[in-house]
Amino acid sequence: MGQIIYMDGKYVPEEEAKVSVFDHGYLYGDGVFEGIRAYNNSVFRLQDHVDRLYDSAKAIYLEIPIGKEEMKEVILETCRKNNIRDGYIRVVVSRGIGDLGLDPLKCPVPTVVVIAASISLYPDELYQTGMAVITVPTRRNGPEGVNPRIKSLNYLNNIMAKMEANLVGAGEAILLNQEGYVAECSGDNIFIVKNGVLKTPAVYMGILEGVTRNEVIKVAKKQGIPVEETMFTRFELFTADEVFLTGSAAELIPVVKVDGRVIADGKPGPVYASLLEGFREVVKEPEAIIFK
Ligand code: PXG
Hints:
- The protein is α+β, with helices and mostly antiparallel strands.
- It has helices at 24-28, 46-59, 68-81, 124-129, 156-167, 211-222, 234-238, 270-282, and strands at residues 4-7, 10-13, 31-39, 42-43, 87-94, 111-117, 131-135, 173-176, 182-185, 189-194, 197-201, 227-230, 242-247, 251-258, 261-262, 288-289.
- Residues 35, 158, 184, 187-189, 208, 210-213, 246-249 line the site of 3-[O-phosphonopyridoxyl]--amino-benzoic acid.
């Protein structure tokens, strides 16, 4: 069955959900987006995602034509229209239709799209055996350009990194920042465990402040695991006791090899297992309920 898409104030069949070739989201990657999970009839951390969307928009001088409360209701209603209780939601706000020039002032009305789809989960096996990843030559763009805190439609940097990983059969790409410190992956944040301490790059290192990342930090604190938001290099990755990645789609994924170095004994570790269990408890808590 075709999906129902929210587009510019209307719920339309997917065949009718078409974006103009003059939309600056298409012409220039000029826009912002969110990827959100629904679990168990509830949208996970809806407020956090909506806040990040509006912050991203603000940073690129984009005024979203509806308010946050209406946006939350639109996201929930799009889930209802597609009968989604567990799924993956994509919100896209682009600059809108303009002319072929760069000037965003020629785009009077932003385009707003919400898609609520079922999620294709990663194979269970990945969570048991872990993933091999590499650091890639493409660096995370610095905050002096398109700040990595902006979840912009301009993901070319991340896509190049992902290609570099794909080409050598690695599951994800770790990007270093401009100074050579570990930043994050193409679509996930990164954590290491060393001597019982959980470490993740600080937001000022030039990363997207992941909703899953922040949740994992909270779960760790609740479990009494010390957490440091800090900076570290590839050396700390290679010599870590545990490495794992976080993201809305992936949740928590263990990493067992980085650039050919086997991490510890090559198996997902106990801190990872405990955090995954804690996280999967948290997502069960009812929050932004879809069907009342
Ligand atoms: N860093 C980057 C650069 C991201 O794009 C995350 C971290 C994790 O953030 P959340 O809030 O989801 O915990 C993301 C999220 C995909 C895909 O298909 C992933 C993301 C965006 C679009 C697609 O893997 N990213």
